[in-house]
Design goal:
Number of helices: 6
CATH topology: Rossmann fold
Number of strands: 9
Distance between the termini: 36 Å
Strand order of the largest sheet: 3-2-1-4-5-9-8
Largest sheet: 7 strands, mixed
Number of domains: 1
CATH architecture: 3-Layer(aba) Sandwich
Helix content: 25-40%
Structural class: alpha/beta
Length: about 200
């Protein structure tokens, strides 16, 4: 299959301002999960697939050094407008020094990574974390992958991979992580949230 990532990136470039406004509001359960991540990730944090930078800006407010990484030029520009240091990069191969991070945050972005690239992506994330570093991740749960039109701009679509929770949790364990907590929640889709720690070597 042709890599769907460039087309998805172009979609985000197009919808960036509207997406930024629509994604400002978060549920109480998500906010509590983000708070727990911030409490254990006391050090440099990367927000992979940072989008317009809402979470990264909040991490800065908590006193955490943070860098946002996104493939979309327009999303990175919006993040920078919130004083988030943002760089262009692919979350499958993030431009981060090995062992440089205390925390890695990825909210609603792994769901755009093709299924067959899940394991190498998780290995790249593990490599970027220092031993004992923490991963906070929220992604779509399910058992399919498909193009999904944007509800407010149906001329463009994004590629979504809805992952089986048990399979993803097992893959985290096999790529160097210890899962600390995980849970499912439902909004317009079902979300798997995971807090994991890179195992000590």
């Amino acid at each position: 299959m042709e890599d769907p990532t460039p087309r998805t990136t172009a979609t985000y470039d197009r919808i960036a301002p509207v997406f930024a406004e629509r994604s400002r509001t978060r549920s109480g359960g998500f906010l509590a999960f983000r708070q727990r991540f911030a409490e254990v990730a006391r050090g440099p944090v990367a927000d992979l697939g940072c989008g317009p930078g809402h979470d990264a800006a909040w991490f800065l407010e908590q006193g955490l050094p943070v860098v946002g990484v996104d493939r979309s030029t327009e999303m990175a520009r919006l993040a920078a407008a919130q004083r988030v240091p943002a760089v262009l990069g692919d979350l499958r191969r993030p431009p981060l020094a090995p062992g440089s991070l205390a925390g890695l945050w990825c909210c609603a972005a792994l769901l755009h990574v093709p299924a067959d690239e899940t394991e190498p992506t998780l290995r790249a994330w593990s490599a970027a974390l220092r031993p004992g570093g923490v991963l906070g991740m929220s992604t779509s749960a399910g058992d399919r992958q498909e193009w999904e039109p944007i509800p407010y701009d149906t001329e463009v679509s994004r590629w979504f991979v809805h992952r089986d929770p048990d399979t993803l949790l097992a893959m985290l364990e096999s790529t160097g992580f210890e899962v600390l907590e995980h849970g499912l929640s439902t909004t317009h889709r079902t979300w798997l949230s995971v807090l994991a720690r890179r195992r000590e070597v």
